[in-house]
Amino acid sequence: MAQSGTTRNRVAEKTPASDLPQPVKVQQVRNTKIFINNEWHTSISGRTFPTLNPATGDTICEVQEADKEDVDKAVAAAKVAMQLGSAWRKMEPSRRGRLLHRLADLVERDRLLIATLESLDTGKPFLQAFFVDLEGSIRTLRYYAGWADKIHGKSVPVDETFMCITKHEPIGICGAIIPWNFPLLMLMWKIAPALCCGNTVVIKPAEQTPLTALHIGSLIKEAEFPPGVVNILPGFGPTAGAAFASHCGIDKVAFTGSTEVGQLIKESAAKSNLKRVTLELGGKNPCIVFADCDLQLAVEEIQKGAFYNQGQCCTAASRVFVQEKIYEEFVRRSIESAKKIVIGDPLDPQTTHGPQIDQQHFDKIMDLIESGKKEGAKLEYGGGYLGEKSLFIQPTIFSEVKDSMRIAVEEIFGPVLCIFRFKSQQEVIERANNSRYGLVSAVFTTSMDRALSVSGAMETGTVWINCYNALHVQTPFGGYKMSGNGRELGEYALAEYSEVKTVTFKMSETM
Ligand code: NAI
Ligand code: MG
Fold first, then answer.
1. Nearest CA to ligand 1 atom 25
2. Which among 239, 185, 231, 164 is positioned nearest to 207, based on CA atoms?
3. The 162-170 sheet, strands edge to edge
4. From 122, 178, 261, 489, mutation site for ligand 1 pocket: most ligand atoms within 8 A of C-beta
5. How many beta carbons lie within 10 A of that of residue 26, not counting itself?
6. Does 1 score more than 50 pLDDT?
7. Which CATH architecture has domain 286-470?
8. Cβ(277) to ligand 1 under 6 A?
9. Section 140-165 average pLDDT
């Protein structure tokens, strides 16, 4: 398993403390500018912005702030790189695969430094960044490196006077707008399939977390991708991000983030040039725990699902429906398990829980926790934060949550586990599906029949049976309903980065 919360724990727990990877001392961040045409640029406006360490509130460094004019410059570079006859257009597909493998080799070489930068910028525990984010990123690059020369069209039988073939061609210039919760991994989920299919890319990392994307810029150059194939523009959403969505030179935008911004992006895509759009948005993911399940397994998996990455996951296990008979025991064991979580300095190998990303997000989560208390949910554990002016929120467990409460409806994106009670299978299916979201769901049961029938009824893009966060680069990921459009990962993602061309030959002679 590449990208779940369990990987870090399994590998880290088996490794003697003295052999665990250690964060690198970062004296000065090297890559802080805008990356266009394999060169580093200052912003046209002359503006910079600080990126902060959420664990301390300190500024890590100032970064050049891209805006619309810088986006125009990057799109122009990406267009030249994509022109007929360019080095990238003429490149043999297997060589594109080779370049992706070379990039993966360089990410492996710099793994400690990249994991350290990711931990400093996001506040996520260093070991989690090292074992999960970096492992997932490397696997994504290698998986799509393998696809580069295996993207086949078809020959299509029509009437005998014609010969028809289909070819899968790159779409053109693909924009990638990246969130702050998995900055490196989400970047790889987008650029690896885009490059493998022969597109060029312009990337906007989240304003909170630009550093690992910028390091990748230096590796793109070192791997010797042709100039202009990959361009990276740190900047803000309403300026640089909005410029991607409305740009007539960008042919496709892939976005991961909030549902609200996803709607804005689709709207400007429609109003500008009808660019293709794939969206990976929020979730309010139901987990159904039947009385016949392996209870300890369910408690442990759901706990990781709820608190992993400080709850800042679109896949967060946020609505946990537990069957009456085992309800009290599930709550009791969940509290026991939450007590084992170690909150602290993200660079410390003992730490399993870091700070939230920023003050605004911290305030949103605390407001939702307060609403849970006010609306009558039972606070079983946590509910507070550590110290003054800190962004560390305690893992929080509410029981007796009712379907209409704000914590039951809104995406919290924080470390809050909400436990609901249910009686029958039919009732719980209806309640689980009663959401505008449809990203993932999970079912815990020892009955194969029940697992199959409930998974068939779930209105979600992924259903996990007796596991959680079991993401694999080989399998597609994406949402039903307002959780998104399209799929990332696996063979399915190739279709999101290709156009299909039909070529029809008229034959002058037939047999
Ligand atoms: P956001 O959707 O504003 O940010 C995600 C990315 O979109 C960032 O790169 C941002 O700069 C960019 N962006 C913002 N406004 C834009 C615009 N008008 N046009 C183009 N790009 C734009 O998310 P935010 O404000 O950081 O978090 C708010 C909520 O969104 C979270 O509480 C969570 O519920 C959800 N979220 C979901 C994520 C997921 O993995 N699906 C990731 C991040 C946030
Ligand atoms: Mg930051």
1. 258
2. 239
3. 155-156, 162-170, 498-506
4. 261
5. 14
6. no
7. 3-Layer(aba) Sandwich (3.40)
8. no
9. 97
pTM, full prediction = 0.97
Average pLDDT over residues 104-111: 98
Amino acid letter, residue 439: L
Domain ranges within the chain, ordered by starting residue? 5-280, 286-470
Q: Yes or no: is domain 5-280 CATH 1.10.8.60?
A: no
Task: Give exposure, 212-222, as e/b (b: 16+ Cβ within 10 Å).
Answer: bbbbbbbbbbe
pLDDT per residue over 130-141, tens digit each?
A: 999 999 999 999
pLDDT in tens, 240-281: 999 999 999 999 999 999 999 999 999 999 999 999 999 999
The residue whose CA has the least distance to atom 37 of ligand 1 is 257
Q: Does ligand 1 have an atom closer than 6 angstroms to the CB of 265?
A: yes
- 126, 347 in Cβ contact below 8 A? yes
Catalytically active residues are 280, 314
For the chain, the residue count is 511
pLDDT at residue number 10: 59
State the virtual CA torsion across 403, 417, 8, 386 in degrees, nearest 10: 140
Mean pLDDT along residues 303-316: 98
